[in-house]
Each structure stands twice: as C-alpha cells, then as structure tokens.
Specification:
Pfam families: CutA1. GO terms for molecular function: copper ion binding. This is Divalent-cation tolerance protein CutA. Helix content is about 30%, strand content about 40%. By secondary structure, it is α+β, with helices and mostly antiparallel strands. The chain has a single domain (about 5-105), classed as 2-Layer Sandwich (Alpha-Beta Plaits). Strands 2-3-1-4 form a 4-stranded antiparallel β-sheet. The longest helix is centred in the first third of the chain and has 13 residues, at about 15-25.
C-alpha cells in the first residue's frame, strides 16, 4: 500500500475477539490506535443468502507500509473465513497525530 497513513476497517463477531485482535496488533506495533464501535449491524451476502449480524467495528489507524503485515496478522487471528479488511487512505490529518503514528509503529 502506497499511502503514508491509512485507516483499516475490520469487523469482528464480538467484543472479546475484537479486543484480542486489537491487543495483539498493538503489541506487534502494527497500529497506533484502534477505535471500536460495538453493536454495528452488518447486512451481507454469504453462501448465496443475505445475512444480518451484530458485530464490533474496529477502526485501525496505522502507516500504509504496514498494511500487508497487518492484513496477514488479522487473518491469522480472526474467526471469519473471509474477514472484512478494508484500507482507506488518510488524505490529511493533524501533524502531531500523524507524527505520533510514526513514533509508535
């Protein structure tokens, strides 16, 4: 990934799994901050049917060059067969905050 900074969206089935993933990602210094939004409703196609689930959405702030390693780490820990892992570029941000991301990852 070429973007300097990204926010990765990843949903998990519950807060226990989301917290486990978040703690390990932070321990591995693959992200600076992970914000969690509980009780997100996801509607999606899966195996030919429309599904609806309550999930926890993780918003993972990191450097773009860490995406591949972060992606693989999430896949190793995640219980879903095909977890949602979507990277969005950070177009701009507070310089102090972006510098902090550099310092801690």
């Amino acid at each position: 990934m070429n973007e300097d900074y990204i926010m990765v969206l990843c949903s998990a089935p519950d807060s226990t799994e989301a917290e486990n993933i978040a703690e390990q990602i932070l321990e591995q210094k693959l992200a600076a901050c992970i914000t969690m939004q509980p009780n997100v409703y996801s509607f999606y196609h899966w195996h030919g049917e429309v599904q609806k689930d309550r999930e926890v959405l993780m918003m993972i702030k990191t450097r773009g060059q860490l995406f591949d390693e972060l992606n693989q780490a999430i896949k190793r820990m995640h219980s879903y067969e095909t977890p949602e892992i979507i990277a969005l570029p950070v177009k701009d941000g507070d310089r102090q905050y972006l510098s902090w991301i550099d310092q801690v990852t």
